[in-house]
Amino acid sequence: MSASPTDMLSQFVHWVGFSPIEYVATVLGLANVALIVRRSIWNYPFGLAMVALYGWVFLGERLYSDALLQIFFFVVQIYGWWNWQRSRAEAGEVAVRRLAPRAWHAWLLGCLVATALWGAMMHALTDAHFPWWDGGIAMLSVAAQILQSRRYLESWLLWIMVDLLAIPLFAVKGLLPTTGLYVIFLALSVAGFFQWRSAARARAAA
C-alpha cells in the first residue's frame, strides 16, 4: 500500500528536521552575526530573540549545556548592548580592543578547565548527549560572548573554535538548519576577525 501525500510530507519534514522555531532562530542568528561583523549595535535585538528560541530547541534535543548557555547569552547580551552603546557614545564608534598575550593564554586555559569540569558534571548528573563535546562548545561560547560584549578582537578566534566544534555535533543530532547556520557563522566569524582587526589597527594608527 502506497503512502498517502500526508504521510509522505510527514516523512520529508522528519528527514529535513523541520522545526518552525529552529528556522526562525536560524534567520535571527544570521542577522545577529552579520550586524556584529559590522559592529552595529542593532545586532542585540536579533541576538536576544535568537537565544530565547534556541534555548527551547536545545532543551528538546537534550543538549542541556547549550540550552543553559542561552540563558547566559541573554543576560550577557543585555550587558553587551549597554557596553557597546557606551563605547559609541564616548568614541563615536564601537571601538575594538585587544587582549594582552598573557590574558589570552589565561582565557584559553580557563576554557579547557571549565570544559573538563562541566562535561564531567553533565555526564554524571544528566542524560545529556555528548556531554564533553557539548560542554566544550558551551564553555568556549561563554568566553567568546563575554569577550565580544567587551569588544575584544580575540572573541572571534573563540567563535571560530565554537563553529568548528558545533557543525559536526549539530549534524550528528540532525539539526540540519542549525548545522547550515553554523557553517555560515564560521565564514562570518573569519570575516569578523579580519574586519575587527583592521578597525583595531586603524584606531591604533590614528
TrEMBL record:
Organism lineage string: Bacteria, Pseudomonadati, Pseudomonadota, Alphaproteobacteria, Sphingomonadales
Pfam families linked: NMN_transporter
Record flagged with keyword GTP-binding: no
Transmembrane segments annotated in the record for this chain: 12-34, 41-57, 63-82, 103-124, 182-200
Entry superkingdom: Bacteria
Family statement drawn from the similarity comment of this UniProt entry: Belongs to the nicotinamide ribonucleoside (NR) uptake permease (TC 4.B.1) family.
Localization per Swiss-Prot or TrEMBL: Cell membrane
Gene it is expressed from: pnuC
Membrane topology annotation: Multi-pass membrane protein
Protein name: Nicotinamide riboside transporter PnuC
Record's function text: Required for nicotinamide riboside transport across the inner membrane.
Protein keywords: Cell membrane, Membrane, Transmembrane, Transmembrane helix, Transport
Main subcellular location: membrane
